[in-house]
Design brief:
acyltransferase activity, transferring groups other than amino-acyl groups, eight-stranded mixed β-sheet, Aminopeptidase, alpha+beta, three-stranded antiparallel β-sheet, GNAT_dom, 7 helices, 11 strands, 2 domains
């Protein structure tokens, strides 16, 4: 399972507008944003990493004006963490990832007063980004680059879904990466503060996951950073499976 998820991470980064291969690493670089959660690297599977490789990776990040940072499934590069720490990196977080299969998905009913839809216009995409940014503490204003990023995800085969209240206002959103080898990552599940604890997050996660399964995906995965979100995901059929490491050189 770890290998399939790590392969998915590599594929996702390779779809960035300016993916860069640096020795045994791939950097996903998007020149339109300096977000450390979009611009980061991951090791290739079965990579043999040397001190020189780590030095070259840091230099490559400096060349593009981004913070040297990696995300990866820990078991797929068991010795890499210490190499990075020796080079001045610090661990940001260790997150569990959870997986869901078609026969384990439990989709709840859509909560009353809400409807789910895929954004079809740039205005709708912008509203989805605004909800996401507010939920994650970023600048709530959606830029043209943000909207283009959402559109590009859809064009590449990913899933983007928004939740609207009865008056047509976007109150929640989430997405999933373009499937690769039957695997997709569900991410960015965000619900506006005034609409939380109504079952929206779980129903949205299940709706996105269910749509993936209709396209032939047989493994959906996501990360839970806290117990509250963990419970939401487990209720719709996700189970904890492995560990991912976030590590950066600030």
């Amino acid at each position: 399972m770890d290998v399939r998820v790590q392969r998915s991470v590599i594929a996702n980064l390779s779809l960035r507008p300016k993916a860069i291969e640096v020795g045994p690493f791939v950097i996903g670089w998007d020149p339109t944003t300096d977000s450390r959660f979009i611009n980061y690297a991951t090791p290739q599977l079965d990579a043999v990493v040397t001190t020189a490789d780590v030095t070259a990776l840091v230099a490559a990040f400096r060349d593009i004006g981004r913070v040297p940072r990696l995300e990866y499934v820990a078991s797929c590069a068991p010795d890499l963490e210490q190499q990075l720490i020796d080079a001045g990196f610090s661990v940001e977080a260790r997150h569990d990832y959870l997986v869901c299969f078609p026969d384990s998905l439990s989709a709840p009913a859509t909560p009353d007063g809400f409807e789910f839809a895929e954004p079809a216009t740039d205005e709708q995409r912008a509203s989805a980004v605004t909800v996401q940014n507010e939920a994650f503490g970023a600048d709530p204003v959606a830029t043209l680059a943000d909207v283009a990023r959402v559109r590009r995800m859809q064009d590449n085969g990913g899933v983007v879904m928004l939740v609207r209240s009865n008056d047509g206002v976007c109150v929640a959103t989430g997405q999933a990466t373009a499937p690769r080898a039957g695997v997709s990552e569900v991410a960015g599940i965000a619900v506006g503060k005034a609409f939380r604890r109504r079952g929206v997050a779980g129903a949205l996660t299940a709706a996105i996951t269910g749509q993936l399964f209709t396209t032939g995906v047989d493994l959906a995965w996501l990360e839970a950073s806290g117990k509250e979100s963990w419970r939401v995901y487990e209720r719709v059929g996700y189970v904890p499976t492995g560990k991912r490491l976030y590590i950066a050189h600030d």
